[in-house]
Amino acid sequence: xxxxxxxxxLQWHPNKPLLCFFLFFFCLLTILGCWQLSRAEQKHQWLxxxxxxxxxLANFINDLSYFSGEEFTAISLRGRIxxxxxxxxQNQRVNHQLxxxxxxxxxxELGPSILINLGWQxxxxxxxxxxxxxxxxxxxxxxxxPMDLPFVSNVFKPGGDSVVEIxxxxxxxxxxxxxxxxxxxxxxxxxxxxHWQGKTISPAKHTAYAVQWFSMAxxxxxxxxxxxxxxxxxxxxxxxxx
Length: 242
Description:
By secondary structure, the chain is of the alpha+beta class. The chain has four helices and nine strands; from the N terminus they run ααβββββββββαα. The chain has helices spanning 2-9, 16-50, 203-228, 231-239; strands spanning 55-56, 74-81, 87-94, 97-108, 113-121, 137-144, 155-156, 162-163, 176-184. It has a five-stranded mixed barrel with strand order 2-4-5-9-6. Strand 4 (97-108) and strand 5 (113-121) form a beta hairpin. Helix 2 packs antiparallel against helix 3 (203-228). The longest helix is centred in the first third of the chain and has 35 residues, at 16-50. The radius of gyration is 28 Å and the shape is elongated.
């Protein structure tokens, strides 16, 4: 009964500028909250994929050039490293130290070569095992899109000239897969220091961001209600009846 009486006493004081301000920011905060929830779900699915065991390539495709799976898919490839075509990606920072990512073309038994990111190293010296890498080996890792690897003015061949304005389509190697490259698994014996596995925001953090945006929307709604109605006056009368 008291709630019904309070609602009847509620009065609306129209204020168009304030209404426009409220609607704009309320919609913005709500959209941001929903976006963070969507990102949390995407990251959850990504973590499920990341934790999957590597799947032999032959189990789902016979030729890497026809691969159409999702990014971060775990795969295994059997083939040979082209040790003579190693490249370094500079300006890569690990533990506040600048270094290089070691990139090598890998020729699978089927399909075109694929670029493998073997991880980070502090110097331009190539690992000694590359000199004995002509044998057939198995490489395991996660499929990534080339756009994640910044092939612009910072890829160079050890002992050679820098390559300027290089793009995935123009990488200096014949028969190279252009749509994907592979980040080697941190557990692989040939992996250098792999610095990409910890670079993701957890789903819980995205959810926390969503709660923050929705909370701000709720506070904004309360402030708008107080500014546009006599609800505060009604509350005071209820607290101090005369």
